[in-house]
Structure prediction request, 1000 residues.
Amino acid sequence: MTAYDDLRAHLRSAHLLGTTAALLSWDQETMMPKGAGAVRAEQLSLLAELQHQRTTDPRVADWLAACEADPRTQADPDRAANVRQWRRDHTRATRLPSALVAELAAHESTAQQGWATARSKDDYRRFQPLLDRMVVLQQQKADCLRLPGQSRWDALADLYEPGMTAALLRELFGPLRQQLVALRQRLTDGSEPDDAFQRQRIERPAQETFVRAVTTAFGFDPKFGRLDTSVHPFCTNVGNDVRLCTRFGDDDVLDALGSTMHECGHGLYEQGTEPEHFGTPLGEPVSLGIHESQSRLWENHVGRSAAFWRWCWPLAQRHLGAACDGFDAARVFRTANRVQPSLIRVEADEATYDLHVMVRFELEQALIDGQLGTANLPGEWNRLYREYLGVQVPNDRQGCLQDVHWSCGLFGYFPTYTLGNLYAAQFAAAADRALGGLDQLLERGNFTTLREWLRRQIHRHGRRHSPAELCQLVTGAPLSSAPFLAYLEQKLGSVYRLPA
Amino acid sequence: MTAYDDLRAHLRSAHLLGTTAALLSWDQETMMPKGAGAVRAEQLSLLAELQHQRTTDPRVADWLAACEADPRTQADPDRAANVRQWRRDHTRATRLPSALVAELAAHESTAQQGWATARSKDDYRRFQPLLDRMVVLQQQKADCLRLPGQSRWDALADLYEPGMTAALLRELFGPLRQQLVALRQRLTDGSEPDDAFQRQRIERPAQETFVRAVTTAFGFDPKFGRLDTSVHPFCTNVGNDVRLCTRFGDDDVLDALGSTMHECGHGLYEQGTEPEHFGTPLGEPVSLGIHESQSRLWENHVGRSAAFWRWCWPLAQRHLGAACDGFDAARVFRTANRVQPSLIRVEADEATYDLHVMVRFELEQALIDGQLGTANLPGEWNRLYREYLGVQVPNDRQGCLQDVHWSCGLFGYFPTYTLGNLYAAQFAAAADRALGGLDQLLERGNFTTLREWLRRQIHRHGRRHSPAELCQLVTGAPLSSAPFLAYLEQKLGSVYRLPA
Prediction:
């Protein structure tokens, strides 16, 4: 056994503990009876501790040093990439003292429960001291992680999107915001689609067989995954086994379909990684932004396109029956693309979603870097919603208490949603060029060609390239908001029947 | 922190790893997609290794010695009982060398897969070398575990039923076998019940709501558990969270009901342990025989009684609809108690089930203690089936290849099924006396009184008493086959309308 083999085996077992914890969390959201929560929390905390022990084991540093000194590492691109990423992970893990890791874990649990109560009672003051403490702990975490000259917020954001900085995001977000606001205003002159289709009551079993048929058509492999329901849609990989969860209401089949296609996009990324690299960085998704690009590409560029609806309509008629009477593919395509500025991020349409993200980006950066105190958060939140989205926030429940993220210690995370939208558009445009027109494939129900292209271009690389390198390799250009804006202008111009 | 507190916290975490593994196994049988088996096996093997490390940690020996020397231990009956059982577990765990534990785990996996193939192809010769090796490994395991003068088989059986020996079993089984054979012969002169009710095709959703209603009536608490379906029925506790699995066919609702009541009985035992003792021996079931007594008590003494069927009949009519037309409670009670010697243990009725167990007891003892070679197993199996059950075994698939146990390394385990039947009858008779007649309670649908009695008498004690002590405490007598035989004679005499 070489140091590389030892290290790989050791970190594979850490990965097995991580996927075991993922299964426990999946079960908690889908299957677990109410009374089992306390023991489940103990099980998860123990697994996290064991995983942290493995990743910070002193032998890891020795093995890493031996790998880096071994000429065989640089001679083999796979080894070199794995060692580079293991070093990155190890550096970050060992910079955090165990006491801080434990305190963060405990406070995340407390703050999340406190947030849930505060939100249900619309009582921000109840949450504020917990958020205060969370900000302090995140600042301490950032101070452990950050390099000389790096800002605290950048150090946190780099955990989710390697290489991303607030400065780069500002360059992207500034012009994007102006153009999104301008687009939204132009749409008010257009012809608004009706929402009659999605207001119909449809039995859940019918909705479910319909959305399952779509994931099958997209190529989600049931031999290595499954689809269930949960309160909040999500996707998790429990070890070569990808669990999608979606949600169903009594009405709004388009919401169920959109959630399912979104999670299916995440799932296809996970299923597209190389089995031979399981348990190493080359078998892992590269970043949250790239992950989100895959979900948004399947949800929006595929699933909200006119071509998709031409293919999907007979399927909808077969599964949804009478709910389709009096409608047609063109009308439902327009309904699926209605734009309506709203208060709630997770309900937002494609033209306003990123404005919600930008509000959070501004505020969390100011919180972490110390320009904003938590006492002023609701006021600033409401001011930015007026400015960016033109809506009046009536209460904190629909305002700054709506998202779970900050209570879970996720600072630097929100912008990955918008990066996902931008990457998705740039990847979709590249696929359209490379494959000689996506629409022709989609309207024939050929999803295989696109899926295999994404697998070759993105999924199978794992963490071999940085997100920025990957974008350049796949699209021939650095990340830009231009493809996203061009896509929205083109699609929404058609949906709203704007003059060209 | 005292040594007792340290030890308790340390072994609680070992228990959390065990319950985590239980969840992974549950998921494997109920939810896991086919392709995920290899990674799941790795996850389970890692958890087993981590759990073994914890239980054999050298600090455990130090803590145990400190507890045993501490006068506070003997002064507190709870502490004393936990320390006594921890010592027992630790002694057994440390007597097995890690290399043997690993070799056993690996061979169990190989042998189980080999068994499945051999069974499906009805090819005992294919399985024989794997069984040979398993017998050798089990002999090595027994040699590590056994005390001076103790036989190998007794050392293995003690793992599942503390204090049980082959000599004690022979005393119980000898007369029992003769009387069961005699009873079976007497029944041939009786009036055989018809099986028309169970041959009807009934939709699975109807069967499922029916059996769920029965578990609800029995008092299975859905806040701390759930009921699902699997190929083989089972019950597992994943941490204050009891998962029952049952099975449904297109016909034979009585099989689905029997399986469900059986697993529910196991589940009520698990749910009846004291939450304050979670993660210590006082919160654990005492033995497999006592566990099986709870499942058989609810399955047979409750669920196959005439009183139960008088209560259950309107429920069956409500959920099973037309399938009940032309039948009544008395007729279905008789159908549920048909006796028919068969080849397959898991399909056996109450009057012949234990004869299947006795065949296995004879053979596995001879294998482990060296009087029987694996080459002669099929012949001996078939000979004993002729002698005990009066049936001709047509092939090994329906003969010595039918059970998974030996391929999993479970030697000394089979007799706990019969012990469960004997304990169940003795407990049921004691409950009948203590509660002033079980039938009056059951026919009114009052299952609470019996369940709470079992909880007080058995469940809440955990491993405080040995199975033999518990039997004496609960019933005022040592274990005997008399209550079981009296129960069978009385019930089957009525079912088969034998002269009194």
Q: What stands out?
A: The radius of gyration of chain B is 23 Å. Chain B has two domains: 3-149, 197-342+416-495.
